[in-house]
Design a protein that fits this description.
With 466 residues, this protein is of the alpha/beta class. It has three domains: 3-148 and 274-342, FAD/NAD(P)-binding domain (3-Layer(bba) Sandwich), CATH 3.50.50.60; 161-271, FAD/NAD(P)-binding domain, CATH 3.50.50; 346-459, FAD/NAD-linked reductase, C-terminal dimerisation domain (Enolase-like, domain 1), CATH 3.30.390. Helices cover 32% and strands 26% of the residues. The protein has 14 helices and 22 strands. Strands 1, 2, 3, 4, 5, 6 and 17 form a seven-stranded mixed beta sheet that branches. A hairpin with a 4-residue loop joins β13 and β14 (259-264). The longest helix has 25 residues, at 81-105.
Length: 466
C-alpha cells in the first residue's frame, strides 16, 4: 500500500523546504522529495551560501594584505586555498543538516531521491541505488529550481569551462580567468578569484553590466570593479571556446566586427539559468510550459492541471531564493484556505561584491518607459561619517519617489552593507511609505543607514550633509 499524503513538495531548495515546513505548520500531512542527497537546493549547496562564504573569505584576505596601510603591521599574508574551501564546505554542511532537522522537527516526511509523476496523484521516487517507491498525494507542488545555462555547442567540464558550480570548487587560483556574462553571479565569482590573485576579464554581449539594474548604479558599479583590477570587454559576442593543453581560448567578435582572443586557465560561463523540469515526466500529465520552458501558473501558483502547483525558478519571475521562499509560504497558505500573497514590486536584488549593490522596485528606465513622473534623492557614502571613519565610502543611495504623492517607487544602492540597508526601504514600500516618512524617522548616528535617511531628505532637496 503506497504512503498517502495531503501535499507532496518536489524539490528541497529554499522554495520547497520552506513550503513544506509552512504546510506542516498548518496541520497538513506533507512530504518533501529532494534528489541532491542534501536539502537547501542550489542556493545552499552550490549557490548563495558557498559563494557568500568565498566572497567574505576572499575579502578578508584582501583586507589583511592591506592592513599595513591602516597602521596594523602583520607578517606575510599567505593563501591556503584548500583550508578556505574546507571552511566554505563546513558552512554548507552545517546549514543543510539544519534544514533536515527543521523538516524532522515539523514532522515533514523527507524522501531522498528523484520524483516524477506517474499520474497527477501518484509520484514515483527513485533513489540513488535505483530503488523505486510509489507515493500518493492529493496535491503536489513543483519546486525543482533551475540549472546553469551554457552557450550553444559549449559544454561545462567544471574544470576548465565551468559554471558557477565549478567556480566554487577550483583547486587552485587561476592565473587568468575569463567570465562570460556581466550579471550578478559572474561578477561575484569574478570578484572572488580576482581578490585571490587571478587576472579577470569579463566578456559581455551588452554595452553595460548587470542587465535590468538601474543604469546609473550599473555604470558606477563597473567603474569601481575596474578600479579593483577587473577588466571589461563590452559588446563582445562569444563565437567559440577552444580547449588547449593548459586552459582555453575564448574567441569573440565585437560590434565593429573585430575578432578578439582571450587566453585563460579557466572560463566561467555565467549567462543565466533555466528551469529544471527534467525527469519530472510533465508531458505524461500534460503540464503546460511557456516559450521559455517555464511552468505556466496563475496568481495562486496553480498549473493547468488540477491540484498541481509550481513555485520558484520553474515559473516566471526573478530567479531568487527569497522570491521562491515567499512563493512557498503563499502557496501553502492558499492550499490551507488562507490568503497567501507575494508582492513582486518589493522583491530586493543584491550583488554581494565589495561594495555591495542592492535594488528594489522600479528603476529610472522603467519609470521613464511608463511615463511616470518621479523625483530623485541621492546621497553619497563619501559624506557618511561611519563609512568615512572606517575607510569604506564608495557608492551612494538613490531613492525614486512619485512626483505628486512622494510614494517611494524604488531604491538603488551601491556601497557598504547595501544588502542589509535595502530592507528598510523594502519595509517602507510594503507599507506604501513616502520618502518623507523615511526622512522623518530617526536613524542612529553614526551608522550607514543615515545615508538612506539623507537620500530620502534629498528627494525634497533638503539633505543636511551634502
Amino acid at each position: 500500500m503506497a504512503d498517502k499524503f495531503q501535499v507532496v513538495v518536489i524539490g528541497g531548495g529554499p522554495g520547497g523546504y520552506v513550503c513544506a515546513i509552512r504546510l506542516a505548520q498548518l496541520g497538513i500531512k506533507t512530504a518533501c522529495i529532494e534528489s541532491r542527497g542534501s536539502l537547501g537546493g542550489t542556493c545552499l549547496n552550490v549557490g548563495c551560501i558557498p559563494s557568500k562564504s568565498l566572497l567574505n573569505l576572499s575579502e578578508e584576505f584582501h583586507k589583511a594584505q592591506n592592513l599595513s596601510n591602516k597602521g596594523i603591521e602583520i607578517g606575510e599574508v599567505k593563501l591556503n586555498l584548500p583550508k578556505m574551501m574546507k571552511n566554505k564546505d563546513k558552512a554548507v554542511t552545517i546549514l543543510t543538516k539544519g534544514v533536515e532537522f527543521l523538516l524532522k522537527k515539523n514532522k515533514v516526511t523527507y524522501f531522498k531521491g528523484t520524483g516524477s509523476f506517474k499520474s497527477k496523484n501518484k509520484i514515483i521516487i527513485k533513489d540513488n541505488q535505483g530503488k523505486e517507491t510509489l507515493i500518493e498525494t492529493d496535491k503536489t507542488i513543483i519546486a525543482t529550481g533551475s540549472l546553469p545555462v551554457s552557450l550553444p555547442n559549449i559544454k561545462f567540464d567544471e574544470k576548465v569551462i565551468v559554471s558557477s558550480t565549478g567556480a566554487l570548487k577550483l583547486e587552485k587560483v587561476p592565473k587568468k580567468m575569463v567570465v562570460v556574462g556581466g550579471g550578478y553571479i559572474g561578477l561575484e565569482m569574478g570578484s572572488v578569484w580576482s581578490r585571490l590573485g587571478a587576472e579577470v576579464q569579463v566578456v559581455e554581449f551588452l554595452d553595460h553590466i548587470t542587465p535590468g539594474m538601474d543604469k546609473e548604479i550599473s555604470n558606477e558599479f563597473m567603474k569601481i570593479l575596474k578600479k579593483q583590477g577587473i577588466k571589461f570587454n563590452m559588446q563582445n559576442k562569444v563565437e567559440s571556446i577552444k580547449n588547449k593543453k593548459s586552459g582555453a581560448v575564448v574567441y569573440t567578435v565585437d560590434k565593429e566586427g573585430n575578432k578578439n582572443n582571450f587566453e585563460c586557465d579557466v572560463v566561467l560561463i555565467s549567462v543565466g539559468r533555466k528551469p529544471n523540469t527534467r525527469g519530472l515526466n510533465l508531458e505524461t500529465i500534460g503540464i503546460e510550459l511557456d516559450e521559455r520552458k517555464r511552468i505556466k501558473t496563475d496568481k495562486s501558483f496553480k498549473t493547468n492541471i488540477e491540484n498541481i502547483y509550481a513555485i520558484g525558478d520553474v515559473i516566471s519571475g526573478p530567479m531568487l531564493a527569497h522570491k521562491a521562499e515567499d512563493e512557498g509560504i503563499a502557496v501553502a497558505e492558499n492550499i490551507a484556505g488562507q490568503s497567501g500573497h507575494v508582492n513582486y514590486d518589493t522583491i530586493p536584488g543584491v550583488v554581494y561584491t565589495t561594495p555591495e549593490v542592492a535594488s528594489i522596485g522600479k528603476t529610472e528606465e522603467q519609470l521613464k518607459e511608463k511615463n511616470i513622473k518621479y523625483k530623485i534623492g541621492k546621497f553619497s557614502f563619501m559624506a557618511n561619517s561611519r563609512a568615512k571613519a572606517i575607510d569604506d565610502a564608495e557608492g551612494f543611495v538613490k531613492i525614486l519617489a512619485d512626483e505628486k504623492t512622494d510614494k517611494v517607487l524604488g531604491a538603488h544602492l551601491i556601497g557598504p552593507h547595501a544588502g542589509e540597508l535595502i530592507a528598510e526601504i523594502g519595509l517602507a514600500m510594503e507599507f506604501g511609505a513616502s520618502s518623507e516618512d523615511i526622512a522623518r524617522t530617526c536613524h542612529a548616528h553614526p551608522t550607514f543607514s543615515e545615508a538612506v535617511k539623507e537620500a530620502a531628505l534629498s528627494v525634497d532637496k533638503r539633505a543636511i550633509h551634502s
